[in-house]
């Protein structure tokens, strides 16, 4: 992507920037004796998980950890990662697969933490698709060929013995668009978050399989930073992680507030089944990084999967991309709590 296009992208996404400051005003990005500086943090548009992923912003825990955070929302990885590589944002919350692919092409990226490593994707299907093996020959809605919806769907199919070459993958838009495409009958199956599980029964749509159950080593989110940012804004990166982790913990301990925040984000009532079902899933299902844990084992699984799927010709080494020092400092500020992530090492 050209620099001109990236600049245009930044102009578009600037309208979504929310500045969270420790003192209410602007400030330099550089770190100094007066504070930790500013971090530009990129996320995808939150859904029913908003009560967890936006709580650090809602309660302004970043100020508590002496960091200014500018949150930039993107539609997808196809916007977020070019912006990260071009310096439009410093850190993104994204799927590790995209970071591995970018590194294979020469990007200098590091995994520094996580918020929600548990994979919340599922395959939604028309009633005519009896099982995951029945996806062979069907049309499956994803986003782009290398995006999370496509890669997790292929992993689930491959793990279930389905020949992915016999499944027609089509770009069916964003998550709600993909789900609606199944409801309308335009496609037979869609790869999308569990946000729609509560609605599926009403629409006569089945949750064919959950990624968590079929491919438990497939992670969802990690915090990904450019290597140069870690040198220039070390204290701010630590503060960002601390604020995010504190937000996750707070949301998990305050159900009403978390559901209210998700409802506000999605503009639905707080008792909407989409909100209450999603909160229960995240709260009890082991999706959260209560200590910001980097899902190292799962990132290595993805690196191996990319080779098997033909996305890369050779394995991208994951170990050089792991930098746990910032997370460790953040958790030292907060105090460690028992891990709940279902993929955590026993």
Question: What features would you describe in this structure?
Answer:
With 346 residues, this protein is α/β, with parallel strands linked by helices. It is 42% helix and 16% strand. The protein is built from 16 helices and 11 strands. The chain has a 6-stranded mixed β-sheet with strand order 1-3-2-4-11-5, with helices on both faces. Strands 8-7-9-6-10 form a 5-stranded mixed β-sheet, with helices on both faces. α7 links the parallel β7 (139-142) and β8 (168-171). Residues 1-28 have low confidence and may be disordered.
Beta strand count? 11
Using only CA atoms, what is the Rg? Answer: 19 Å
Largest sheet: 6 strands, mixed
The arrangement of helices and strands along the chain is HEEHHHEHEHEEEHEHEHEHEHHHHHH
- Gross morphology: globular
Which structural class do you get from the secondary structure elements?
alpha/beta
Distance between the termini: 42 Å
Low-pLDDT regions: 1-28
β-sheet strand percentage:
15-25%
Mean pLDDT figure: 90
- The order of strands across the largest sheet is 1-3-2-4-11-5
**Helix residue percentage:** 40-55%
Q: Helical stretch count? A: 16
Topology at a glance:
Layout: H1 3-13, E1 18-20, E2 38-44, H2 50-53, H3 55-58, H4 61-64, E3 68-74, H5 77-85, E4 91-94, H6 96-104, E5 109-113, E6 121-125, E7 139-142, H7 148-159, E8 168-171, H8 175-184, E9 189-193, H9 197-203, E10 206-210, H10 211-214, E11 222-226, H11 227-232, H12 234-253, H13 255-266, H14 273-284, H15 296-308, H16 325-334
Parallel strand pairs: 2-3, 2-4, 7-8, 7-9
Antiparallel strand pairs: 1-3, 4-11, 5-11, 6-9, 6-10
